[in-house]
Design brief:
Jelly Rolls; binds zinc ion; mainly beta; four-stranded antiparallel sheet
């Protein structure tokens, strides 16, 4: 039995790094360089006209998915809410699962939570509205309608993470004329191929490979 004992220390010694990547240039030439991505600082731009912008701490971090790390099959937001805000008013679905995480942001204790957030899952007759008053994670299976999402009371900062298992953020919306539309949003970032152009979520860069 002794030889089957898992010796983590031995494994770690065998895998000691031999090549350090420290500069931008080294990273550009490195085999795994495209897998290591430094978050750009972003400032929320999706605020309805007339709404205050100070409900969320600036700057925020977002992982925009495959446009930032080629081949990524999820995207994720990291926002800290400090004031009540009606974040998402429109019901929608996604083609893959989404997870919403609510944690206290009075670090380091993520259980230091004092907020009241309303979130609806389902549509019409089957719709259920949940009130979040404790650290919570919610799974929204692909195809399930959800929202509105309303941060009704925020007495202590809340860390909100939305994770969607698609290479770019987007949703399926029922239009007033009875049709459905898939809409994508990749953030207020410049186009990967033309820094002067704003990203229009065309999705071209999602085809890139992380490999050289
Ligand atoms: Zn959603």
């Amino acid at each position: 039995m002794e030889e089957n004992k898992f010796d983590l220390r031995k494994l770690q010694e065998a895998d000691m790094p031999k090549k350090y990547i420290t500069t931008k240039e080294e990273k550009n030439n490195a085999k795994f360089g495209k897998l290591v991505f430094e978050f750009p600082q972003e400032r929320n731009e999706v605020v309805a006209e007339g709404d205050p912008e100070d409900f969320v701490v600036k700057p925020q971090a977002y992982f925009r998915g495959a446009s930032q790390i080629p081949g990524a099959e999820f995207n994720q937001s990291y926002q800290i809410f400090v004031k009540p805000f009606f974040l998402d008013r429109v019901q929608h679905r996604h083609v893959k699962d989404e997870y919403l995480v609510f944690l206290g942001a009075s670090f380091p204790n993520v259980f230091d939570f004092d907020a009241r957030i309303e979130f609806t899952i389902g549509k019409g007759e089957e719709a259920e509205t949940y009130t979040i008053t404790q650290p919570t994670i919610i799974r929204i299976p692909a195809g399930v309608y959800h929202c509105p999402l309303n941060f009704k009371e925020v007495n202590k900062p809340v860390l909100f993470l939305a994770t969607l298992f698609t290479p770019m953020f987007g949703g399926v919306y029922d239009m007033p004329d009875g049709t459905t539309r898939e809409m994508y949003y990749n953030g207020p970032v410049p186009c990967k191929y033309n820094a002067e152009k704003k990203c229009d979520s065309c999705g071209k860069c999602l085809q890139e490979s992380w490999e050289k």
